[in-house]
Amino acid sequence: MSGTLYLVATPIGNLEDFTFRAVRILGEVQLIAAEDTRRTAKLLRHYDITTKSTSLHEHNERPKAPGLVRRLLAGDSIALLSDAGTPVISDPGLILVRQSLDAGVSVMALPGPSAVIAALISSGAPTNSFTFVGFPPRRSNDRKRWCEALASEPRTLVFFESPHRLVTTLTMMREFLGNRMVAVCRELSKLHEELVIRPISELVEMSVAPRGEYTCVVWPAEGVDLPTQRPPEGAVLLKELTQLTNSGASRRTAVKEMGRKYGLTTRQMYTAVVRAKEIG
Fold first, then answer.
1. Whole-angstrom Cα distance, residue 157 to residue 216?
2. How many domains does the structure of the chain reveal?
């Protein structure tokens, strides 16, 4: 009889956020597959768990997964852990889960801490429907396409970002999604937990702590108090743009200002200007 692959959620900061069931399972399985065995060792010591662990991360999961599946088929049970929170969510483990399922191995998830859910429910954003989009792409052009694709997403958005890219990502999101309300969460469940809820325009002016991953929750467009005035068309719109540029604003600044006035993103406002030129 094959064993079971347990997907065990671990604390995202506070070691007290661990379930009795998780402690029991980690003590009963034959092996713990951990994203970082050094970080997992601290958790295991805290709960006096002596089960052997092995590393399973993004660089070794593909070659290592078949061997773990063989152990599962032979009767061993294995617990999969990420560094913090729920495994497989923007973390290694999907390959192992799929191969285990394909082999007919029982896969069982143990609910527990999740930075995504913790940030979402404390943000004040609509929670009836949301989408988690992981980490934005690192390359600028890829990130632009990522933002552009999300511009029409009607649900609350949740994503992760590193501290040194946070301001750049928020600035780009403002251009494509508009000046949405965003909750920026850091050090969730820890002593110095931070939760800042502001429009993007205010967040980009704030100082960003250089350490710790950020979880961000973006309000849907309908949750923002956007102007209802529709932009004029044709010569009237172009005249307004000319007036702004004649007063000293650059073309880009003028388009941004008009976008804020009419509740449009900078990209949408540019499109309206191009259309106005075509009309004449």
1. 8
2. 3
